[in-house]
Each structure stands twice: as structure tokens, then as C-alpha cells.
Design goal:
transmembrane helix; mainly alpha; about 250 residues; 11 helices
Length: about 250
């Protein structure tokens, strides 16, 4: 286990605040947190498992901040959370069986795809509900399962895909769909983090510094969503994600 210098601890805490904000707003926490871990000298897979464990704190903060928007969504979340949990487990297993070299090359592709997803136009349904009992539940579950496999595998912008999905299946507002996303992504990250904590090379000193920042940023994010127009915010985060995808792609394929 590596030691974290004070300068790296400050870097990780600041990255955690930014990542917690991005994660609880649009599911792009890893745009800030994953590169920060790489800058401390961690190899890609070690950085990723450490990142996933740290992002559990983003989930705690974002769910805490999303309580007003979560009222009335209990039935939907109870139906969909098992799909998220199984997807997170599958993604964690996939990550642990993927060589470092392959992982470095697949990350830019996944991140670029997910970043594009955030800028696609999304039109909420007219009936103003996040989900309807017994309506296409199997298809919704499969979609959540697939996204959460990606979330457990890497996680960068998995929340973007969930946000788009929840808006398309009837999100009342961006804030309500975002609140549901925070719970579902938190569940997927949580089960993946349990696996990583048991069998993967998690760097716990880095988790402490990054996780504390993620908790603060995650708590503030839903407040930002509640009071900020969504279109400029989605475009800005999408551009940031694409920029990072280009940078990581250049590093991996040069």
C-alpha cells in the first residue's frame, strides 16, 4: 500500500469535491477523480478500483442532498435496484479479469461514448412520472443492468446514461431523474466497491482523501441541479468528458 503525501492528499480532496459535484449532477465524477489518482502515480486498474471505492462517498452525499426529489420514487427504485446491484457485481468481475493494457485502451472509448450521451437532447415524458408500474419493467431493468455493468467496470459517465434513460422513461424533471440516478448508481458502485475492498489493490489512504472530497461535492451537487438550467450544464460536462477521452486516448494509443 502506497503512502499519500500531503500535496497528493490536497489534490485528491480537491478532485473529490469537483468529482462529487460532477457525479451528483450528471454522473461524471471520474472525469475529475480518475485522472487525479493517475497523477499520484497509481497504475490504471489500481486507480480505478480505488476510484470506485471512493465514489461510494459521492453516492452517500448525493442521496442525502436529493431527498426532496426522491419522495414518491420508492416503488420504482425497489424494482430497479436489484438490476443495478447485479450489474455492478458483473462490472467489477469484468474489471478484475481485464489486463491493464487492454483497460488503458478501452477507457477512452467508453468515456467518449458516455460524454456524447450527455449532450443528446432528452425530452421528459408528458405524464410527469419517473416510472409506471408494470410498463416495460423488464426492458428498463435490462437497460439499467447494462449501464451498471459499465459502472462497475469503470464508472466514468455511467450516470449520464442512467440520467438519459430515466428522463426518457418518464422523469418528472431533470432533478427528479437525477435523484433516481444517484440512488441506482450508488447501489452499483457500492456492491462493486465491496468486491474491490475484499480482493483488489485498493489504496486506502487515497480513498480517505478522495472520499472526503466526494462526500462534500456529492452533497452540494443536487442543490446545483435544483437551481441551474440543465442544458448549459450538460453541454459543459459533455465537453469536459470528451476532452478527457481525447487526452486518455492519445496517451493509450500513441
Amino acid at each position: 500500500m502506497c503512502r499519500v503525501s500531503w500535496s497528493h492528499a490536497v489534490l485528491l480532496f480537491a478532485a473529490g469535491i469537483l468529482g462529487g459535484l460532477c457525479g451528483s449532477i450528471a454522473g461524471l465524477a471520474s472525469v475529475a477523480t480518475y485522472p487525479a489518482l493517475l497523477l499520484t502515480g497509481l497504475p490504471p486498474v489500481t486507480a480505478n478500483v480505488t476510484n470506485t471505492v471512493s465514489l461510494v462517498f459521492t453516492g452517500v452525499g448525493s442521496i442525502w442532498g436529493s431527498r426532496p426529489e426522491l419522495r414518491g420514487q420508492g416503488a420504482f427504485l425497489k424494482r430497479i435496484l436489484p438490476f443495478a446491484a447485479v450489474g455492478g457485481i458483473a462490472g467489477a468481475v469484468l474489471l478484475l479479469s481485464t489486463p491493464d493494457e487492454g483497460f488503458e485502451k478501452v477507457v477512452p472509448v467508453l468515456l467518449g461514448f458516455a460524454s456524447l450521451a450527455i449532450v443528446l437532447p432528452v425530452r421528459p415524458s408528458r405524464d410527469g412520472r419517473i416510472a409506471k408500474p408494470r410498463r416495460a419493467l423488464a426492458l428498463q431493468g435490462i437497460a439499467v443492468f447494462a449501464v451498471c455493468i459499465y459502472g462497475g467496470y469503470f464508472g466514468a459517465a455511467a450516470g449520464v446514461l442512467l440520467l438519459a434513460l430515466f428522463l426518457r422513461i418518464g422523469g418528472e424533471t431533470l432533478a427528479h431523474a437525477n435523484a433516481a440516478k444517484n440512488v441506482v448508481l450508488g447501489a452499483a458502485n457500492g456492491v462493486a466497491a465491496l468486491i474491490f475492498a475484499a480482493v483488489a489493490p485498493v489504496q486506502w489512504p487515497a480513498v480517505v482523501a478522495l472520499g472526503l472530497g466526494c462526500l462534500v461535492g456529492g452533497r452540494l451537487g443536487p442543490i446545483v441541479v435544483r437551481h441551474t438550467p440543465d442544458k448549459p450544464m450538460r453541454i459543459a460536462i459533455g465537453i469536459a468528458g470528451l476532452s478527457l477521452a481525447v487526452k486518455l486516448g492519445f496517451d493509450a494509443y500513441r
